[in-house]
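Comment thread on ticket #2218

A.B. wrote:
> Attaching the input chain for the structure job we discussed in standup.
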Amino acid sequence: YANSQPAVVADDVLERAVAPAVVELDMPSRTDLVAVARMVVAAAAACRPVLAGDRLDDLRLLTSEATTNAIEANLATERPGRVSVGAELSETGLTLTVVDQGQGLTEFPEALSAWTELPDLQDPDQRRREGGFGLPLMHLLSSRPVVFLSGEHGSTVRLHMAQERPTPG
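C.D. wrote:
> Ran it. Output below, let me know if you need it in another format.
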C-alpha cells in the first residue's frame, strides 16, 4: 500500500507538469484560419480534461464565433492586423480570450442589450439574416459574464467555460 500512493501522486504531478496552463495563437486575419483556432483551443482543453461532450462543442462554437468576429473587425480596417486567441486552463474550466486590432466599437454602450439576447427567430426577417448570433451565444453559453473591452486599437473578448452549462435566466 505504501508504494502505490506515491505513484498516484507522481502521475498527477507529471500530468500537471506536461499539460500547459496557457496556450496562445497569434494569426493573420484570414477566415480560413478559424478552424485552426478552434482546433488549437479544443486541443488545449483536452490537455487537462476540464470540458467534455456538449461543453467541448460549446467551446468550439464560441471559439469560432469570437475568432470570426475578430477577423471581420480587422478586415474592416485599411491595414488588417493580427488576431490573438488564448486558452487558459484552470481547475474550474477554460478561459478563452480573443483580441483583434480593429477600430473598436463606437456604439458600444447602446449596443450591449442587442448582444445579450438572441434575435427573435419567429420574425421571418431575423431568420433570413446572416450573422448577429455570436455575441448572444457567448453570453448564453459562457459560465461567467462575458468581458468585452473595446477601444480605438481593437477589442478583447474574454469568456469562461466550465463543465456545467449555465442555467438560462
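A.B. wrote:
> Thanks. Noting for the ticket: Confidence is low (pLDDT under 50) at residues 1-18.
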